[in-house]
Amino acid sequence: MGHTDAVVVLTTLANTDEAATFVRALLDRRLVACGTILPAARSLYRWEDKLADETEVVVMLKTRSGAIHGLERAFKELHPYKVPELLAVPVTGGLERYLGWINSETSLTIV
């Protein structure tokens, strides 16, 4: 396994339809190579001095570290949450063919 700049970006959305719309928009902009939608997550968190207990959808976005700034702009424009989760987790290795595919499917140009 060689060096990679791949990252997995985690976010959450309210439901699978909202998540699919969001992922499609990111794919259209070539900011991500793939978005995996994991329904039925339960999120507990404090929001505006109250404890929230919500069912959400977790989305794992596969992209490159160089696309993070573009994702930040797209999240501000497209993500429906007031304070969306955007956590980039570096990938330290992986199957060369898959990592190459991520690179070929993403663009680092400003969209």
Explain the overall architecture.
The protein is an alpha+beta fold. The chain has one domain: Alpha-Beta Plaits, CATH 3.30.70. Helices cover 31% and strands 37% of the residues. It is built from 3 helices and 4 strands. It has helices spanning 16-28, 68-78, 96-105, and strands spanning 6-13, 34-47, 50-64, 87-90. The longest helix is centred in the N-terminal third of the chain and has 13 residues, at 16-28.
Task: Give descriptors for this structure.
4-stranded antiparallel beta sheet; 4 strands
Give a summary of the structure in a few sentences:
This protein is an alpha+beta fold and 111 residues long. It contains three helices and four strands; from the N terminus they run βαββαβα.
Structural class of the secondary structure composition? alpha+beta
SSE order, as H and E?
EHEEHEH
CATH architecture: 2-Layer Sandwich
Distance between the termini: 30 Å
